[in-house]
User: What shape does this take?
Amino acid sequence: AIRGDKLYIGDMFGRFYCLDTKTGKAVWGFETEGEIDASANFYEGHVLVGSQDATLYCLTADKGEVVWKFEIADQIRCSPTVVENRCFLAGCDGKLHIVDLKQGKEVAAVEIDGPTMSTPAVIRDKAYFGTEGGTFFCIDWKQAATVWTYQHARGNRSIRSSAAATDKHIVYGDQNRRVIGLDAEGQEKWTFTTKGRVDSSPVIVGTRAFVGSADGRVYGIDITTGKKVWEYEAGGGFASSPAVAEGKLVIASDDGVVYCFGTSK
Assistant: This one.
């Protein structure tokens, strides 16, 4: 995660770093007791990061000092989602945790059907995410209640892709090679099948969703019809998620290549 001229990143050894983006030098480092899988997020002057040691850490962004720690009963493998003064944390303990960011205390928890490593997508008062059990949840975070759930008619597989969502469209991938489009009421609008599992989290840009697949391709999909409008075959699979900035789409493949796509001049 980047803020200003600083890059915040964790590693498989449980170390979390703040790096200077201009020099690449470490500004500070912090050690947790478990692997760090997901990206960080920010709240005011703080940086938030989860670890497989089952702890969400709130650190000062400038010095890496602990402000508070929030512990759950199992690993944290998702990124913390921040809305207003609340953090949404979907854990491997089978709960969606809603945390007060000022105090680091739990406001509420909603039971789900199993562990998850998906980062919740929040639109207004709804949080959207899938689980290892193959169920996709819509939760009203202000009421701490499940609004609806969705399971694919042709069988459930683990959902490790984090959803992309707008007011009308929700798009995510699953381990059964599918990219799935739902409406805001949880009704399936379309299913697009790739040739490999979809761990990559889609990003929505205008009327298109872009996502990588383990089949070595990046797809552009119309979010209304589910039709493929663009495809690039790279060879190496994609587990990482695309990022979009300044008219460019950037994604890294499993074989260590970073691709940047944009409009040709």
Observations:
- The chain is about 0% helix and 50% strand.
- The chain has a mean pLDDT of 96.
